[in-house]
Amino acid sequence: MRQRIVSLLAAGAAVALAGSWAGAAFADEKPILIGITTAIQVQVGRDCVDGAKLAIDEINAQGGVNGRKLQMVVADEGEAAAEGPKTGIAAVNKLTGEDHVDVLIGGYDSGVTLAELPHISRAKTIYLGIGSASPSIQQKVKDDYEHYKYIFRVNPINSAKQAKGLLDYITGVLKGQLGYKRIAILGENAKWVQDMVPAMKSGAEAAGLQVPIAEFFDVQTADFSPIFAKVKESGAQYLMIILSHAASDVFVKQWYDAKVPVPIGGIDVKGQDANFFDRVGGKAISEVSTNFVLRAPLTPKTIPWWDSFVKAYNRAPVYTASGGYDAVYIYAGAAKRAGSTDTDAVIKELEKTDYVSARGRVQFDDLHEVKDGPGFVNELFVQWQQNGERKVIWPKEVANGKMIMPPWLVQN
Amino acid sequence: MAEILVYGAVISAIYAMLAVGFTLIFGVARILNLAHGSFYALGAYGVYALTADAHLPLFLAAAVAVLLVALFGVAVERVLVRPLRRSTLAVLMITLAVALMVEQVLLLIFGSEARNVPSMVNATFDVMGADVSGQRLLALSGAIAILSALWFFMQRTRLGSAILAISQDAEAAQYMGIPSDRIFSLVMGLSAGIAAAAGVLVAPFQTVIPGMGLLPLVKAFAIVVVGGLGSIVGSIVGALLLGYTETIIAFKISIEWSQIVSVAAVLLTLILRPAGFFGKRAAF
Amino acid sequence: MSEHRTDWLGALVVLVALALVPAILGSSYITGIMTVALCFAMWAASWDFMSGLTGRENFGHSLFIGAGAYTAGFLNVNFGASPWWSLAASPLVAVAFSLVIGFPTLRLRGPYFALAMLSGAAVMQSLTIIFSEYTGGQDGLNGLFPFFDSELTQYYLTLFFLAATVTTLRLVANSPWGTILRAIRGDEASCQAAGINVTFYKIASLMISAAFAGLGGALYAHYQLQVGPDLFAVILSINIIIMVYVGGMGSIYGPVGGAILLILLTEALRAFSEYRLWVYTLILMLILFFLPQGLVAPLWRRLRTIAQ
């Protein structure tokens, strides 16, 4: 009896000792540093940070990664228009050179990201892009794997693939469903748009449509009336738009106010915002804009994630929010499988990523690009309808609503 | 064709309002006010804040916004510009700093995303075959009304004559007992108010973002220099030229080229006519 | 000890300090921003030489910066030329631009000159974006490579060229040339009447200003490893003028101090996160309001009188 009590006490002491030692070791473990580079004064930047923070808090609550907590360090990339890429490059240098982060997450302006790449490569740090769309970024992985293997794109689908998606929309919806024969294309003069539009034009023409207008405009353009008038005159039946940094709010307001007899749709990054419809006083009605995530059951995780973001931050997320959130989970997953944060080991695991996110299933192709298409992350064509309701009208597999026309075209 | 006429007129009218205010303060007080674009932006944001946050009716909000910005202009002149008046470069720099500061404050308070100001007139009108929004027509008529009121004020009132006198010869005016310091503040307020009115009128159909004042400032600067610094007539002529050039190029060629062509036109004008069209200090 | 001697001694002290700081603090971050600061210092000094002395305020200095930077970009990316070629080609191209814009704008003064130069830079910026096939549009040209693999060595190269720039410009500014340039600011007509070829001096000072700005552009391009239309932007020209003003116009070395101070300030204020630019602008406003003669040059002059 005494022996049992002694051994029990000894066992208890040993467990207590081991426990405190492990606890101390946990507490002493260096946190895993996650560096966020984004334009923090802009909505997309703030959502990247908030999305990442949500993921970090969740993961830490579940015990962290490999026994270590995650910690975020944010560095402002500045506004590309005002400061150029130099602030972004300084941000990268600070996070890698001074803070010695284990991974970089962020990006918004493709020009800034492209400028940062050689500096990221020099620092041999993993970069998970969540906002820039230029294909040139990931092309470097193929052209020079040794130096650029660190670069991954979690979000969004790159612009060349988005262009294919737009072409599908043109042939499937505009030609196939609506029987249109003539369309116009308008895009802002960002490089990725300038590359995209000629491909769209020739693709549409190859499908038998006429494209009398394919034009660009400066991001600072405040007055779109010339282009609306030209589109009307050309007899185009639909206006494909590609807007990212440009003033979508003003564009749709001017389109609505002038009752332009041509429906609009395409890529409209600002038009993805959940409050866009209200922001423009309802004048976005019938505009179609591509979206990667909205509050719909794209995957089992979509609605719960959307709701937890809204609960945490009191506002609806934009596309960079899901990017930031997913990037953290994807990195955490890779680090867990690798059992360490050793860069080369984690890269190998990142390449094997298979993660179901709010947007869809994330896997990387050989350019470290997020895969797109059925079963993966989809480019959804979403239309603003009555009362600000959004319906996915394309692709057919995920559509949950019928396309409507602008109200002034409905009275025939 | 009708579209070019109408849209060109609206753009020119707005440019004219901006340019006239800019040239007024230069002609009278020799101040190159780089914060002029900020007054424009503050007018737009003012009407937004007063309708969205304070829930004032639209027309009242517009009037209050213009008044507040005018007062702000007076304050800038009294507090920041007047002590530095001896050096034109110092005044240039401090007004530049004001412009940068206003942009940052707007960014911090209202965020980077565009703000929505509801239209005062929601109907669409058919003018000679062109579909024009009521708000644009309001902007056009508002600009004409304000500039006419300004003309009336300058030509037919004592205060207006005093302002003209100072712009022609500041020293002589002082000997005549005209209080130039107070006039400068008044003119600054007037200039700011007109710029704010422009901002209020265009806010429903133009982008309301913190940086919205930079491009209008550069354009106003260009128009005023080309029209002849200090000449109100020159500013109006310059505004019409720039507005219509931009509109015609945008319609006939492309929007992309309209900007570069107008800048090139400005450069060309300066090379050919180094003192602008109407030179300095032409009376209104 | 004469004023000039003290000036050169002070410059030497600053040079040594600039050389030691990154070596001691030794992170790519510090070396990086210091390199950027030195490039801005070259641009500010070159602006001051022309505009500070002759009083013709150039609101389009970015024209020469962009010209130099894109030259480096084209040579390096499209032709694979060694970065050392940029050092020769960029100033030459910038000088060519200065001739193209300089002759037509000879007669212009004050705001008219300012606007003309601004327009020149704006036109180039628009052209760069429109002809994106050749220039990379908004994203610019990527894939430049640096002079050296070591960022520190490249920093020293930049420092060397800054020192050479300031030395050359100071020597010219203090020579009879400089006197003539200052005289042109005072009264151009009298200079002309006195038989001075005013045109020659105006063009020459613009060319020199452009050459050093272009050189700075090349050095910047090979640090940043990217060139974009932002290097032709109006806001860049304005920022440089602010740096010159904070440094003290007309002194050449003042703008160097102003540039380094303001670049370091924008980085140092990162702790304020989204309030960074607001605090920066506030500090700027205080300096511009309370110190109309600038900060750096008057400070040095006071130190100098104490030292003597």
Which percent bin holds the helix content of chain A? 40-55%
Q: Round the Cα radius of gyration of chain C to an integer and report it.
A: 19 Å
What is the 3D shape of chain A?
globular
Task: Provide the succession of SSEs of chain A.
Answer: HEHEHHEHEHHEHEHEHEHEHEHHHEEEEH
Predict the CATH topology of the largest domain in chain A.
Answer: Rossmann fold
Greatest contact pair?
A: A-C, 37 and 34 residues
Strand content of chain A: 15-25%
Give me the strand/helix succession of chain C: HHHHHHEHHHHEHHHH
Structure description:
The complex is a heterotrimer of chains A (412), B (284) and C (308). With 412 residues, chain A is α/β, with parallel strands linked by helices. Chain A folds into 2 domains: 31-157 and 298-362, 3-Layer(aba) Sandwich (Rossmann fold), CATH 3.40.50.2300; 160-291 and 379-410, Response regulator (Rossmann fold, 3-Layer(aba) Sandwich), CATH 3.40.50. Helix content of chain A is 47%, strand content 17%. Chain A has 16 helices and 14 strands. Chain A has helices at 2-28, 43-61, 80-83, 86-98, 110-122, 135-143, 145-148, 159-177, 191-206, 225-234, 248-257, 276-279, 302-313, 319-338, 343-351, 407-410, and strands spanning 32-38, 70-76, 103-106, 126-129, 151-153, 182-188, 210-217, 238-243, 264-268, 288-291, 355-356, 361-362, 380-384, 390-394. Chain B has a domain at 2-111 and 128-210. Chain B is 73% helix and 3% strand. The radius of gyration of chain B is 18 Å and the shape is globular. Chain C has 308 residues and is mainly α. Chain C has a single domain, classed as ABC transporter involved in vitamin B12 uptake, BtuC (Orthogonal Bundle). Chain C has a two-stranded antiparallel ribbon. The longest helix of chain C has 27 residues, at 28-54. Chain C starts with a helix and ends with a helix. The model of chain C has no long low-confidence stretch (mean pLDDT 92). The chains are: A alpha/beta (412), B mainly alpha (284), C mainly alpha (308). Chains in contact: A-B, A-C, B-C. The A-C interface holds A 40-41, 74-76, 80-87, 89-90, 93-94, 96-98, 110-111, 114-115, 117-119, 122-123, 134, 136, 189-192, 194, 218 and C 27-30, 32-33, 36, 126, 129-130, 132, 136-140, 142-143, 224-226, 228, 230-231, 233, 235-236, 266-267, 270, 273-274, 276-277.
